[in-house]
Every structure is written in structure tokens, then in C-alpha cells.
């Protein structure tokens, strides 16, 4: 195992040359990391135009510095998740070409010619098929990483192998703790303070958030991506690949689904500010359809996969459906926590913060907080897509008479 | 670390002499294991009368032989559980005096002068306080091994450390799989076949069993004992200690509670055969009270401990109560699976099989199967002790007019 040292651009080039497939001798490297945790080099073969990504975990949080240490174990986790998910769904998982555990380095296929799904949603030209492709990815990776798809001894060993306490603790703090109290890590626009204060005093809401956090802490249903927002997904017109899997662990399926759904709904909430008028309403309508498509494809493909379940008890078909009802409810609840934490927590999204007009921005942020609360409180009674449609009607997505 | 070899009595004496506190030179050893998995020596200092237990895991299931291998990892798990539970509740956990990981050997305090709780229940002279003591034990060990009592990073590390796939797989097969299908491992009295066949065709029941199994597979709520029947509990008139913790793992709290409750109810179901007439009815009444006491003490002490919970989300008091409602329901469900698996599965109990009269025995066994089914199906709607009292009325425990 190599000895750890922080890569310079020329280290990245050396590593890419040794382990990258078909790279020549004239290589250049550029640091392209826009994330908060790692350094990421794009290494290009100037002659052939071929390129790869060299991603290295630093022993601290990059955007903060050495004062906030963070385990390099996350590189091992990320490599393991990408390999595992890549086995189940290679068409939608970024390809891992090589890894070096000692250096905490991953060599990845370069998708920088693709677009981030979040960016396409912001530009109003996201391809219609992306939601279905993500539903397909989730059905395959969550099924095959669960007790439906694995023998229990193998699955229990995987739960231990993907134990990821430090990164999970970060998620727990930013999703379930900070936004529900007045904490210095929060980033709250002054106009949102009154509404945030209401959330902090809302006992019914905090009880549901406790239940969602407890499930996140305990319920090892499947090997999750763990950070599945729309900025963790690269797309083209007819392709989709998920990347950035260092938050992976064994957790509740609804967390991955809810993170994705929550980000579609953040974009929905931002539309009146991003695209005032008719265009924004049409985009909102598309976001709702994407949420329902994502769920439908996930549900139908998971159900189909479960007909091959080898577990004598879990194979009971009526149980599979009962379980998926619970996953739907969890997904809505986790989506609600995503809406809230992205509005008043430490890490925001452009879908809201990128709205130029301060008044419109505040309106959209307030809507996101209200919708988040409604989803968390309504998750247990929001039985299906139609119920979700009705719940979202107040947010501009009701089908108009002329549709 | 010592090299593994199977202990002879003189090996056990050597080991006890080296590591046992205050033992002299004149030691004798007797094999006293009546379990199915291990060999157990009682080593006695003939002069002082002091004694210890030397328990060694064999690399196979003892009662079957070398053809059924079983990981010696279970000795490491058992030592870890006893240490952890002993820290939380030394008064009710058998003391671990020494361990040798290489030899898969544990040196334990000798409780053979005490009685097994099961035996006392069979003899009709179990002390009234035992159920409350077990409730106290469960509140302390389950609270302190859970996300209520541990920081999440520490708890996630514990989940991985106590990963126990092989022994869990045994539990899964004998609790949740075999009794619900016609399997060669089952041990079914000929007169029970019709009723067993009904269970195998009962879709509603199998759906609930799937949910209970799935929770057992996924839901890492606390460090469980994992095999908490009345034969894993030594008692005196005013003491109680739990032993045999090799099935320990991170699982749902209701499984430990349900195993204990299920065994009290197995004894209840056996009473018409064990003690026909008035005495049996009085014993049944006592079992019901013990079940309710065990739960009440567990519930109240867990609730009191949770006032010190340091987790910002889980500390919400209304959530603690909501969570305990789910634990109650799980407990009834798992108790139901214990009743069924001990009646038609591989491992039976004397509370039923020890009934001499064949007709009475069959009646009692049928009652156990029916009650098991009712508990599993009724768990989600059986809201409290009064509801359980009503459910059990049909099994002879209704308060009579003259009480």
C-alpha cells in the first residue's frame, strides 16, 4: 500500500499515467474540484484528447482546512460503493478505473463533458428521461444491496464493511439536528428567521424528525449512495451517471429516494423566482412529473426484481408491497428534511439562493420550508402519487384547466 | 494469542488455575454443558469450595458434530456482550472473569447453585420479583447500547464490532423461516400437523412474519442478548443474572423483550397440562402479571433514562414514547414467533413437551400455536397491557369473578 501524501498536479499526472487506460506521455492536470471535501484533478492526454479524473481524499474538510479533520476512510467507502453499485447498475454508475487505498486516491472516468442534473434543471432544459433513469438506478442498487437481494450472512458482512460513522455523523448533524435548533452552523437569511423559529418550537415536527433520524441511525436496509442530490448526477440527453459516493453506508432506502425527490422539489419551489410566469409554472409541472416518474420506475422495477427474492420469508409478495409503502413514506419524510436543511442549514442550493430578486427569493425559501414541514408531517398519510399531487397543489403545480 | 485446541478437563483446570481468582491447587473439573453449542466445565477448588465455569466454543455445533461447522467468533461476541452488558447492569449479568480469544474460552462466575428461571416456573415456585429484575436489566442494557445512550459514531462502531452473521442466520432460520413451511428441521407432533399446515397457508400471518424478520435483519436499535429465553436466566429468591450471550448482535429491542415474554407465555400455555385445575390457573395468572410487570418496569426505567439522552433529535420526549409503543408491538410479535417456533420448530421447551398426558399436551401445544398467531397478527393493534389481558382471556387468564 502506498504511503499517503497530498497530491500535486504532477503526482496526479504520474498516477494517471501508471493506471489510466490508454493515456500517452503528454499529460496535463487541472484541479477542478468544486466540492467541499476533496481535491479533484482532471488529467488530459493532449494528443488523443483522452482524459480521466484523479480524486483524492484529504485528511480534513477541504473548504474549512486542517482545523476540521475528516477520515480518509471515505475514499475506501467511495471506491467500495462505486464498485458495488457499478456491478448492479453499470449504466448509471461512474466507472472506477483504479484505486489506491494508501493514497486515498480514486481514478475515475471523466464525465466533465456531461452536465450536472442540477444545472440542467436550473437552465430549464433537463432531458425528460433523467428521472426514469435515476429510478432504474435506485431500484437496481437498492434491491441488490438489500436483504431481498443478498443472503443475510453476506449482507450483514457488507453492513460492517460499509460502516461509515464519521461521514454519517456529518449527515445526521446537518439533516436532522441543526435546522431544528438555533445553531451557529446554520445559514439563515434574516427574513427567514421568524419561520425558522416556528420550526424550532414545533413539537409535532420535531417528533417526526426524530423518527426519521432514528431510522437513519438504525435501519440498515440497503447500501445507499448517501448524498444523492441533483449535483451528484451527471447527465446527457439520453444518459445518466451517479458519482460522489463517499457518504455511502447501509441505511434506509427512503433516504436516497428522498434526497433525490427533495432536490427536484427544491427546484420546484425555486421556479417562481428562477422563471417568473408561465415558464416557471411549466417547469414546476415537470418537476412533479419527474418525482412521480422516479418513484413509479423505482417501485415497479423493485417489485419485478423481488419476484426473484430467495429469502423464504421476505419473498411473500404482499410483504414486498407493504415494505414499499413504508419506503414511499420515508422518502417523503426525508425529502422534507432535505427541503428544510437546504434552506436554513449550512449547505444551500442554487435553485433557491441563485434567485436574483430578494423578495421572490424569500417567498420561494419560505415555500420550501413550508413544503418541507408538510412533507414531514404528512408522510405517514400521503398514500400515493395522487395524494402528493394534491399536497403540492398549493405550491403552483395544480394541473390547470387547459392542460 | 493462544493457539486453539479443544480443552480436556485438565486443560480447563490449568486455565482456571492460571486465571481464576483465589483458586488453590486441588482442582477438579466436570463437564456440565447441557446446551447444544459448546463445552462447559465446572472447575471446583475442593479445599475452599470456590468454583468457576470454563466455557469453550467448539468449531462446530456440539450436539450435531463436526458436520455442522459454526464460527468460534461467537466466543468473542459473547465476551464482548457480557462486558458491555456488565458495565450497564452488573447486578444482572453473569461476571466474565477472563477470556482467551485464541482458545475461544471464557472464564465465568459459577452460578450453578442458583436455579434456571425456566425450572422455577415449571416447579411453580418462581420468585415474584424475577420479572421486574429482568425488566430492569433490559431497560439498562438496551438503553445504553442504543442511539439514545451512545453518540452515533460510537454506536455505529459497535454495530460493526458486534456483527454476528452466522449465529444470526441460525436465529433467522429457526424463528422466521422453518416454522412457516414444511421443513425437515421442524419437529412437529403428528397431532399438530393440521394446525401447522394452516399456518403455512396463512398469507396474512406470513406477511407479518416477513416484517418481523426484516426488522431483525435490518434494525440495529441496540446491543441485544439475542437468546433471552427463561433458560438463559439464573435466579435466586432475590437475585437474577443473565448468561449465554453468544447470539448477541445489534438488533431490534423487541426481539429480546419478545423472547422473554414468549417464554413466559409458553409456560402459561403449558399450565393446563403441567398443573391441571386451580393451581395451573393461578400460575397462568402469575405469568400474565409477570409479562405486564416486565414490560412496565422496562418502559418506565427506559423512559427515565431517556431524560438524560444527549442526542438533540431523539431527546424529544414525545418521540421516546412513540418509539416505545413500537417496541411494545414488536415485542408481542416476536413473542408470537417464539411461541410458534418452540412448538413446531427444531428446539422445543419443557413447558410444553414435558407435559405427561398426551391429550393435554396436544391441547396446550395447539393453544401455543393459536396464541402465537394471534400475537403476531394482533401486535399492531394490541395497544397496551389491558388489550393484552383481553387477548389472553381466551387462554385461561381472565380474572375470575371471585378475584
TrEMBL record, chains A, B:
EC nos: 2.7.1.100
Q: Which residues form the Aminoglycoside phosphotransferase domain?
A: 29-261
Record's superkingdom?
Answer: Bacteria
Q: Which source organism?
A: Zobellella endophytica
GO MF terms here are: ATP binding; S-methyl-5-thioribose kinase activity
Subunit notes for this chain? Homodimer.
Which gene carries the instructions for this protein?
mtnK
Keyword Membrane appears in the UniProt entry: no
Under what name is this protein listed?
Answer: S-methyl-5-thioribose kinase
Q: Which Pfam families match?
A: APH (PF01636)
The family note in this entry says:
Belongs to the methylthioribose kinase family.
Q: Which PANTHER family match?
A: METHYLTHIORIBOSE KINASE (PTHR34273:SF2)
A GO BP entry is: methionine biosynthetic process
* InterPro entries from the UniProt entry: Aminoglycoside_PTrfase, Kinase-like_dom_sf, Methylthioribose_kinase
Q: What is its EC class?
A: transferase
